[in-house]
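Wait, mind explaining this?

_____
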Amino acid sequence: MIEMLLDATVRASTPILLATLGAIINERAGIINLGIEGLMLMGALAGFAGALASGSLLIGVLAAFIAAMLGGAIHAFITVPLKGNQIVSGLALTMFGIGLTSLFGRDLVGLTLGGFQRLPIPGLSRLPLVGKAFFNQDILIYLSFLLVVAIGVFLFHTRWGLALRAIGEYPAVADTNGIPVSLYRFLAVTIGSGIVGLGGAYLSLAYTPMWMENMAAGRGWIAVALVIFASWKSGRALFGAYLFGGITALQLRFQAMGTTVSAHILQMMPYIFTILVLVVSTVRLKKGAARQPANLGFPYDREDRS
């Protein structure tokens, strides 16, 4: 029972984790991106269509990454060189993603394909309790593990990561030291958006290998909340995503057991928890227990010295 619940938790958590990691890259550069939901849908549709057309799941993953990058580039163009309102641009990107995928994905609804299969790691996959959950999964789940480590190393143990964090904190100081602020921000938004698209690809190529409208089902908004909960750190994002995944797995398990609790109430559980997480995270921010990038949400103009 516990082994099955852990396995379900990991699988339910992966799209949220990938989306959160991409959002962290965005916000570490000082750019708020509320278009995560739309980007996940773009990645899901492009991934499914690419895999269906080519017969290759890996090409589908690449298509998802590129499609989300292109979507993120719209947000980057509006918020970086044009210095547009980041909140409005992000919300518009979500609505754009929902409408775009509904339009171009209508002929794909109901089609299925053979999704990613499990790749057991010899020896480790037979460990009790954790073996199946962590070492007998598909390649996208293993990729999510690697990205957690890689992003943590990049942000806190490389010069480029230090430069990215400096841009999110004090862009004028970074600019004075020769760091191209606009270029870093543009790349952070586009590459981070591509990682968000991988979360969408996981939905349509592994979790439920098919396409349906709005299949992100609010996971993008959960990822936005998780960035704050994780204090903009990839390791904490893993913990937070697995909390949400565990709640999702539990409510599905309760429904399968035929509980008398309304299915609608059970489906609300992850989103109720999202609200609680936002409240707790906001309190922690106000008390100084956590700190967001100091320049988050503010455009940078090198001519403005006020």
Q: What stands out?
A: DSSP finds twelve helices and two strands in the chain. Residues 43 and 67 are 6 Å apart (CA to CA).
